[in-house]
Amino acid sequence: MKPLSPHVSVLMPVYNAAPYLETAIQSILNQTFGDFELVILDDGSTDGSIDVAVRFAALDSRIVLLEPESSNRGEPVVRSRLLEAARGEYIAWMDADDCCSPSRLSVQVEYLDRNKDIDAVGTAIVVADSDLRTLRTERFPSDPAALAEDPHLCTASLMLRSESAKAIGRLRDAFFPGGGDLEWVMRFCDHYKITNLDNPLYTYRKHPYSYSVYFAPIRRLLMIAFFAMRERRAGRPDPILSLDFDRNLHFLRDEYFLKAPGLTVRERTDALKMPLKGTVPLISVLVPFQDDHKHFDAAIASIAKQQFQNIEIVIFDNGSRFPLKREDPSLANVDRPLVIERTDAPIGEAEMCRRLVDIASGAFVIWHSPTNHSREDRIESQLFYMLEHPDCVAVGTGINTVETSILDAVTSTDFNEDALATGRLEGVPFTFMVKRETLLQSEVFDDPNEPVLQTGSH
Question: What is the rounded distance in angstroms from the CA atom of residue 205 to the CA atom of residue 210?
Fold first, then answer.
């Protein structure tokens, strides 16, 4: 018979985890601490996960199967149902594609039994590949005060006092793409103390399916979660409660984070870093090209390797004798949105630049030489500056001058922060990030004889 009141409720949300679920369940059944229930809820899996769970439930009475969802409802619904169903004095999370040490529950129970002022305890984790081969060990801070400000931990490794956990309530629906467990922990830290053990008692499996299409939305939601945490603790209303969220994620579009009152510039930049699926890239990298094949592959590679990935690459082939093609080796492996337009005969520089700006779709444009190289943090650094200085319409950078085939600087040049201090542009136009709206409204391309992209030319 199942115990009327198990000491620990282990809560396992399941969604399409059939290849890993048996290992996850078995690692709980193998615990040296036996007074637990394993509560499993399937979130509309289509890969036979429920069959694995049913088979184990028939063999061990400590397994409780909740009525599965008929379709995929998402993390907030499933984790909230599990929390409500838990009967134990303590609650432990367990992901369906991971596993844990046989001593995990006993060590965490013993810690919470001894430390009545602590309401939740996580553990260090072993990060493993899909075959559970160890990649590294990660340890997290143990100071409750530090964790209250930045809950740097593995939520799946947590054990919590049930009374405290249930007082926090449900996970929030806006976090249906993911990240709701961490936002819930932030609310937990508003009221309760949390710590981590150095013991690596939990194994986090890093496999191809652990990278969700929701990576960008989760990143953006967590930036909002940190903002909301600051607002609550300052005694102001929680902004998450007023989010007009929708399943199409319109509430997470770039436009919100470009202004987002309350978020720091760092949070806004980090939120915008990854492109939101189905939306226009924030930044267009404009590359004029005319038979510049010699160093073109290195230039394109430096764009593709940018830390800031919410970009498109727009190339205008200005009547090259040997035209660029999407299947060219220099472009074949580019995994950013790529637009190539060309003319059969060369046109003037001003007209070429106008065409590039017209083709671009980003709110910001960056000029990029087809023969030069950008540091991997270039775009992120320039956008950070633009967000920090909202009245600024353009920002360039200093440059390194290098030998033809070597990227070690021979000379470095910095420019005046006020680029127009001398009454003319001071800097290298190819280094500038510009608000696209400003270019569309300017007269910079009106004179067909004016060289637009030559150093310090206008």
Answer: 8
